[in-house]
Amino acid sequence: MTHDTKSCCQTPPRNQGRSAVKTPATKPVQAVDAVEIPGGRAFVGTNTPELPMDGEGPLRRQRVNPFRIGRTAVTNAQFAEFVDQTGYRTEAERWGWSFVFFAQVPDELGATEGVQGADWWRRIDGATWRDVNGPGTHDAAWKPDHPVVHVSWHDARAYAAWVGGRLPTEAEWEHAARGGLEDVRFPWGDREPDDRQFLPCNIFQGRFPDTNTGADGHVATAPARSFGSNGYGLYNMCGNVWEWTADTFRIRSLRKQAKARMAAMDGYRLSKGGSFLCHKSYCYRYRIAARSGNSPDSTTTHQGFRVVWPVGQGDHGG
Fold this sequence. Notes:
- Residues 1-27, 41-60 are annotated as: Disordered.
- This is Formylglycine-generating enzyme family protein.
- It comes from Lutimaribacter marinistellae.
- It holds the Pfam family FGE-sulfatase.
- The chain is α+β, with helices and mostly antiparallel strands.
- 15% of the residues lie in helices and 18% in strands.
- The chain is built from 6 helices and 14 strands.
- The chain has helices spanning 76-86, 91-95, 138-141, 153-162, 170-178, 256-264, and strands at 34-37, 40-44, 60-64, 67-70, 97-101, 113-115, 118-125, 206-207, 211-212, 242-248, 269-272, 292-294, 303-304, 308-310.
- A hairpin with a 3-residue loop joins β8 and β9.
């Protein structure tokens, strides 16, 4: 079994500097379908890390206040409302390109530029949250009830602020993902997904990156509200799309290798939950304690987010 510290999860930074993103000044709208999560001492991390160099351990307790969180990741339809009302342009739109998983790149686009060491990621000019797999793919690939992708950390923060919320902390995210359970590996407990019969989330089945059988019914994103919900009624807390958090990616380690990795990832932001590209044989990051770091301007076909609010907000339709 090979677990790569880069793997399918981490995409390269744009290496073209940082662009300023302003939060649109507009009247916030109420969130739809948010769930109240009780406060308390949250379990964070694990004492049995699969990827120690990601900073998964140790298991610790951290107090969190009650909060509300979206029942699903933000959908294309929700993000479209934001764009329609504010005229917001995502970083992928302003840069003019984004990363698309090679299997989703249309043949008619011809030869594409891969990423050294992670050739499954292809730089596609014109790939955005509207044209998920590149120019002309809106009708085939864009679905209103699927999670929005090709959104950077800056884009996610802008949307969250517009709806009067923010991104979750890692502790809040894990507390919500556990759904009332304690030291468990997945939102449903500890049973491991397989490639055939037990398919509780949208991850990769087969041999990454070349063969995805789609046994769970999806080879890319699934509807944001799909598969079973956890004990708090939240959907797809593991698998489907990575979710940006408010936190900086940090590793609690004094090892020289960890320090060197952190230096190379200075300013990177933390994502949680894994995606449709995760698989135990290669990228075992669809566990609650798993983590990934990406530059805040990074955008891909498997990166999304969900929003949290203080208790008393975000409760329309919950």
